[in-house]
Amino acid sequence: MTASWPYPRWVAHRGAGKLAPENTLAAFRLGARHGYRMFECDAKLSADGVVFLMHDATLDRTTNGTGIGGDRPWSELSQLDAGGWHSRAYAGEPLPTLGSLARFCIANDHFLNIEIKPTPGLEQRTGEVVAEQAARLFAGRTPPLLTSFRPESLLGAMRTAPQLPRGLLLDTLWDGWFDYATKLQCAALVCNHALWDAALVRKARDAGLRCVSYTANDDWAAQRLLALGTDAVITDRVDLFPPT
């Protein structure tokens, strides 16, 4: 039996893809202006346990800081410029917390896919803290979908907030992935869009799993995924695909 699925088909990757600095509130606002109602973000822990949004383990690519983000307290991370790397128009844009993004989503009836992106060595702990905060922040609302490439993070999330839906992220179909998706009681399989074919969709459906794709940025790729009957498409191209 396939799980209930309250989410829209189109999901904006890291807020607005590449049109604004990823994982900043400016990006989520821009994605919303393009009509998107669901967003994907990356969440990790500061050294003092604050859940903040950033994809990389290191600060260098998307902020004016250096080193491992998870090694810094939030008091330092909150002062970084997370927008100037993208363009001058976004210079000074701060790193957001999960709490600030949750408030934005709740105020605007948006949906959220939180990718648990742990600093290496903190896989399970990050899953636990992200799930606890997500459950509290979205209490009484449509819950966010929690996803991760790391089974340990999903295990931490399941043990902490089993009521929140989970999805296993896959870039390859590594040995044992299906057993992990089953043991972790996942609601969705979130695959590199190139992995999906009719056989994999059928395998997922037979197991009660929803089918989600990342990151489809070309029309041919999106049309192929829609023809396969997948449930959701994560994209950078919020300017190309009108959300439905």
Please explain how this structure is put together.
With 244 residues, this protein is of the alpha/beta class. Helices cover 30% and strands 18% of the residues. The chain has helices at 25-33, 74-77, 98-107, 123-137, 151-160, 177-183, 198-206, 219-228, and strands at residues 10-12, 38-45, 51-53, 111-116, 145-148, 166-170, 188-192, 210-214, 232-235. Strands 1-9-8-7-6-5-4-2-3 form a 9-stranded mixed beta sheet. Helix 3 packs parallel to helix 4 (123-137) and helix 4 packs across helix 5 (151-160). The mean pLDDT is 97.
SSE run: EHEEHHEHEHEHEHEHE
- Strand arrangement, major sheet: 1-9-8-7-6-5-4-2-3
Kindly estimate the percentage of residues that lie in beta strands according to DSSP.
15-25%
Structural class of the helix and strand makeup?
alpha/beta
Provide keyphrases for this structure:
244 residues; alpha/beta; 9-stranded mixed beta sheet; 8 helices; 18% strand
